[in-house]
Design a protein that fits this description.
InterPro entries: Arginase, Ureohydrolase, Ureohydrolase_dom_sf, Ureohydrolase_Mn_BS. Its EC number is 3.5.3.1. Belongs to the arginase family. This protein is α/β, with parallel strands linked by helices. It has helices at 22-28, 31-37, 66-83, 98-113, 143-147, 179-188, 195-201, 203-216, 248-261, 281-293, and strands at 2-8, 41-47, 88-93, 117-122, 169-174, 191-194, 220-226, 264-270.
Length: 306
């Protein structure tokens, strides 16, 4: 497979500094080498730039860095569109606000191919706030709402060329949802597999059912992996840890199933804050998970063993 690596060192969408160093840490942990070892042709396209920042005022005075994140969203959307023409883009965050841009650019690309875009959101949080409902004001809490066409972004974030159908979005690993998000997710029809569902059913059947839907519609599949999807005991390098996350084995199983499916067309690796890491263990885990998604196996297995 041809892969395009793009760094998006955004940190203004998170509540604290450090995600700016995310792309460097993922590169230092050996991402490019791991992909090449698996036989992929990797082009590191370097660092994405925001468009020029212009002043934007909004009635929600809690919002932080709205002009900056709006400018990053525009720049990342253009880069995502360009980088997805003939290769699988892998976006190195940066906080999760980068996905406002990646999803926008990828939705525009998908529309051109005539195939529907599906999104698998691996996260403790659904990031489904609008600019009006976020109480923290941290814009890493809004990208999924923006990309699926929820109201109130016009004039503040770049207008979306194509919205992603909320019915084609599956969130997995969820365990921290704000009241406004809960209501909006339900109204929009987003699939929410919270940790309770994972405990009751196991992660494989939940993911398998979603992958079957992507297959049925011949869809493209974007995977957005937030570090806090993982349990903090194995992935401490994130500013928004929530106890009770995915285990090491659950996370690798998800990645191997995604690899088996052959459906994944793009990937975000987000929220890594290397300032909070312990000797690079979280960055290394993110690289190992990416390797599983891209074909690394313990033993050979038949396709779709689930
Ligand atoms: N819902 C909370 C907020 O809006 C947490 C969001 C965390 N998002 C993330 N990408 N880590 O502030
Ligand atoms: Mn997130
Ligand atoms: Mn999160």
């Amino acid at each position: 497979m041809n892969c395009n690596i793009l760094g998006a060192p955004v940190q203004d969408g998170a509540g604290r500094m450090g995600c700016e160093m995310g792309p460097s840490a993922l590169r230092t942990a050996g991402l490019v080498g791991a992909l090449r070892d698996l036989g992929h042709a990797v082009a590191d396209l370097g660092t994405v730039a925001p468009t020029p920042v212009r002043p934007i005022a909004h009635g929600n005075l809690a919002l932080k860095a709205l002009p900056e994140i709006s400018a990053w969203t525009a720049g990342i959307a253009d880069a995502a569109y360009a980088a997805s023409a003939d290769a699988m883009p892998i976006f190195l965050g940066g906080d999760h606000s980068i996905s406002a841009g990646t999803l926008s650019g990828l939705a525009r690309r998908a529309a051109q191919t005539g195939r529907p875009l599906f999104v698998l959101w691996l996260d403790a949080h659904p990031d489904f706030h609008t600019l009006d409902t976020t109480a923290s004001g941290n814009l890493h809490g809004v990208p999924l709402a923006y990309a699926s066409g929820q109201p109130g972004f016009h004039g503040y974030f770049p207008d979306l060329p194509e919205r992603i159908d909320p019915a084609r979005i599956c969130t997995l690993g969820i365990r921290s949802v704000d009241p406004a998000e809960r209501q909006a997710l339900r109204a929009a029809g987003v699939t929410v597999h919270d940790m309770r569902a994972i405990d009751e059913h196991g992660i494989a059947p939940l993911l398998g059912a979603f992958l079957d839907r992507v297959t049925l519609e011949n869809g493209l599949l974007h995977v957005s992996l937030d570090v806090d999807f993982l349990d903090p005991s194995i992935a401490p390098a994130v500013g928004t840890t929530v106890p009770g996350g995915a285990t090491f084995r659950e996370a690798h199983l998800v990645m191997e199933m995604l690899s088996d499916s052959g459906l994944v067309s793009s990937l975000d690796l987000v929220e890594l804050n290397p300032f909070l890491d312990e000797r690079g263990r979280t960055a290394t885990l993110m690289v190992d998970l990416t390797a599983s998604l891209m074909g690394r196996r313990i033993m050979d297995r038949p396709t779709r063993s689930f």
